[in-house]
C-alpha cells in the first residue's frame, strides 16, 4: 500500500480563505510600517536580512491572539498551517518592501531627470535611451517627491507615477514568479534528496509547535536579550543610563594604525544578538568558513599593501572574485542536480493526468514551471527589447542572474547565514568585464541601471525566501500548491501596496529630508556606475577576469577537497559569502555564534546543544520585539532611537 507523502498529510482541512484574508490585511498594515521605519524614519530595517523581523513579530502576536481564541472562541482560531501561510505571505511582502528593492527602485526611477544638469550631461549622455514610459520625466511632478510637504493625490502626481508603477509592478512580479518556478523544479532535489537543513525556516516552524511558549529556556533567552536592548535603547536617549556595548564601529581604525595593517580599512565589531543566536543553528564548518574568508579578504589587502599591488585599480577585485565564486557554485549545483533535471524534462513531456507523476505534489507541475520560466522570460525580453535593449544582452543578464539566484538560494538553504549582502557582485559587471563598454552599447548600459535594484546586494533576495516557504509547507503540513497560491496572492498585493506606501510617505516627508538611500542609490547607479561607463571607453577587463578565474578555480578546489576529506574545514559557500563587503556588518557576530556552538558541542555534546536551542530562539525573539518597540517609539514621538539592527 502506497503511503501518502509528508506534504499531503493533513492538508485537506486547511482552508485558504482565512489565512489569505488575514495575510492581505496584515500586508496593508505592515507595508506602511516598513516604509515608514525603513525608508523615512530609519529606526529599523524590518525587511532586510535572511530572517525578516516583520513576519516574526507578526507571527508572535498572532500566536498570542490565537492562544486566547482557542480558549474563548475556538471556532475562530487558526490551525498551524494557516498561521504559517500568513507568516509566508508577510515574508513575500518583505522581499518587495523595505531597503531592498523598493527604495532602490523608486530612487532610480526618480533620479535621472530630476538631477539632470548642464554640468553632468545626463541629457546628452543617456536621456535618449530611456523610454518615456519607463520612468517619471516630469520635473514638476517630482518636486513634491524630493522636497516633501506635498501629497501624492494630485492629478499631475498620479498621472506621472501610474505608468511606471504599473510597469515595474508587472516586471517585479514576472521576475519573482520565474524564480518561484525555478524553486518548484528544484524543491524535491534540495529538500528530499540532498536534505538541506534550512536553518532560517526553523524558527517559524518551531514557533508554531505545541507548548512553544511554555519553554523556560526560551523565556530566559528572551528576557536577557530584551533587558540588554531595553538598556541600550534607554542609554541612547538618556546617556546616564548604563548600556551594554554591542557595537564598536571604530575597532579597526583604533587597532590597526600603521602600515601594512592599516590597509585593512574599516573593520567594526557588531555583536547583534539575533545574528549570534541564528548562527547557533548553522553547521560549524559553514559558520567558520564565512567569518574566516571574510578575514581572508582583509588579509589580501595587507598582502597588496606589502607587495605594492594596491596600485592596481580595483585590487583585490572582490566583486570579480565574487562573480567567479557564485557562478561556479551555481554551475556545480546544477551539475549535482543533473539526474533530477533530466527527470524534470522527462516528466514535463508526460500527460498531465498522471497522478503518480513525480511533480504531482510539487507547487507547480514541472511542465507548468518550465512554461512559466519560458513565458516569463519572453515577456521580459519583449518589454526590454521595446525599451531598446539588445535581446542577447538581456538574455545574458537573465542567465547570470538566475544562475547566481540558484547559488544564493542553495547557500542559504544549506548554510542559513543570517545575512548575505552579496553587494556589487552582479551580472552587468560580468557582462561589461567581458565585452567592454563599447560592445555592450550605451543603450544596454543605461537600461542596466533600471535592473540594478534587483541585483545590487541580494540581502532580501526572493528566491531563498520562496524555497523556505515550501520547506515550511512540508512541515506545517500544508500542500505545496496552497503555499504557492498564498505566495502569489501576497506578491500581487504587496508589490503595488509597497509602491503606494512609499510614494504616499515620501510626498509628505520629502526624499531629500529623509536622508535615506532613495537619494543614495540614484547617485551610486548613475554617477558612480553609468557615467564612467559612458564617458570613458573600457575594453575587456582582463585583470578583473583573471581574478574571476582565480575565484572559480579556488571554489572548485574547495569543493574537491571537501569531497575528498571529511575533516576539511573550509566550505566553498563560505568563501563566496565571505568575499562580500556586506559581511563587514555581521562577521564578528557570526564568529561569536560559532565559538558558542563549538564550545557547547565539545563539552556538552548533542544533548546539551539540543537543550540550549530554545534559549537562542528566545534571544532572536527578544531582539526582534525590542527592535520593533524602539522603532514604534521613534515613529510615535518623531525622535531618533536606538537601532537593534544595522
Q: What features would you describe in this structure?
A:
By secondary structure, this protein is mainly alpha-helical. It has one domain. Helices cover 68% and strands 1% of the residues. The protein is built from 25 helices and 2 strands. It has helices at residues 17-40, 53-72, 80-94, 102-114, 122-125, 139-147, 155-193, 199-207, 216-237, 251-255, 273-279, 284-307, 318-336, 338-348, 366-387, 391-415, 427-440, 442-451, 462-475, 480-509, 511-514, 517-535, 542-564, 572-578, 587-637, and strands at residues 247-248, 269-270. Strands 1-2 form a two-stranded antiparallel ribbon. Helix 2 packs across helix 25 (587-637), helix 3 packs antiparallel against helix 19 (462-475) and helix 14 crosses helix 15. The longest helix has 51 residues, at 587-637. The model is unreliable at 1-12 (pLDDT under 50).
Cross-sheet strand order for the largest sheet: 1-2
- What is the strand tally? 2
Number of domains: 1
The succession of helices and strands, N to C, reads: HHHHHHHHHEHEHHHHHHHHHHHHHHH
How far is the N terminus from the C terminus?
54 Å
Brief descriptors of the model:
646 residues; mainly alpha; two-stranded antiparallel ribbon; 25 helices; 2 strands; disordered N terminus
Topology of this structure?
Elements: H1 17-40, H2 53-72, H3 80-94, H4 102-114, H5 122-125, H6 139-147, H7 155-193, H8 199-207, H9 216-237, E1 247-248, H10 251-255, E2 269-270, H11 273-279, H12 284-307, H13 318-336, H14 338-348, H15 366-387, H16 391-415, H17 427-440, H18 442-451, H19 462-475, H20 480-509, H21 511-514, H22 517-535, H23 542-564, H24 572-578, H25 587-637
Antiparallel strand pairs: 1-2
